[in-house]
Amino acid sequence: MKANKLFALMIAALAIVSCGPKSGDPDDPNKGQTTTEVTITLDKTELQMQPGDSQILTATVTPAGTAVTWTSLNTAYVTVDNGVVTAVAEGTTIVLAQAGSARAQCQVTVGKGTSMGGNSYTLKDASEYYPLFVDDATKTKMGEKVKIDFSVDDVKNHFWPWVIEGTETLTYEFVTATGPNFYQTDEGGYMALVAANNAGWAGGGYSVQADELQQLVDAINADPENFYFHLGLRSTDGYANVFYFFGMQAETAFNIGAGNIYNVNPMTDYKRDGYWYEFDIPLSKYAAAFSTFKVADHLKPGEDPYIFSFLTQGINGAQLNYDALYFYKK
Which of 59, 108, 181, 300 lies 20 to 30 Å (CA to CA) from residue 234? Predict the structure, then answer.
């Protein structure tokens, strides 16, 4: 009985299937119609990213204009919005692009932030920015909050590597910057210097227009508790650096190193492991010195004043790799 009942059901099913129109039959509703196949490809099938990075995936679709839906299979690692992939945290997942029934995928691997020792840095939130040395992408993020742009343009603002007195011999050599910059927006896009020529010291700095520098000094004096200076450093050696605001006075200096150099005590030190580290210097620490500082008192004939300068221990090969120099007001 069971076998006969199953056979009867199979016959009924065949009858249902056979009652529909066959391809080519005069009753076929699809006869004479051409079905357009949708295809989709991505310009990348793999991405290597670090937390905070964003990259763009571009989909090529036929027919052109077919809507594309984007999906991340694990938003804890990666998010995607109309092809813009943003790395969130360490892990691996797939980004899918779908058009009709066609799909394409890209495998996305997010690392720890290897060029930063596992740290991921972002632009400091601020109401005002005064950039000296930042990448273009970061300056774009600063937007209309840039009050005075002190970036080097070789017209108003200059960078000067210093020379041995009485010669044209540089105390620093410019070397090739390798690896991502501080914000990982550019490969090698940072300043890479090495002490050279047995000078016993190596130095350099940024000169700007006197009136614009005085505007910055006035702004800091009006609200010193909310002003900071930011910089990123990376190195693999233990030599210290001293940095100066607005000149070479010890009272406006800070030392990032292991010991006293150039009569400036160390503020702090950092791991010399080849990764980026950031420092935010509270300018309230210098409120007394800044309150009496007048740019006009420090001008030299034919020279623009320095807004920021630095010295490296003058041992040949001592590194100074820096990036992301800017004053900011919270």
Answer: 108
The tens digit of pLDDT for each residue in 223-275 reads 999 999 999 999 888 888 999 999 878 889 999 987 888 888 888 888 888 88
| Residue 53: half-sphere exposure toward Cβ, Cα within 13 Å | 26
With beta carbons less than 8 A apart as the criterion, state whether 202 and 318 touch: yes
Cα dist. 197→174, 206, 315 in Å?
Answer: 12, 22, 9
Question: CA nearest 237: which of 193, 199, 197?
Answer: 193
Buried b (16+ CB within 10 A) or exposed e, 203-236: bbbbbbbeebbbebbebbeeebebbbbbbbbbbe
Radius of gyration of the chain (CA): 31
Q: Is the dihedral of CA 124, 48, 234, 131 positive or negative?
A: negative
- Supply the DSSP string of 12-60, one letter for each residue: HHHHHHHTSPPTT-TT-TTTT--PPPPEEEES-SEEEE-TT-EEE--EE
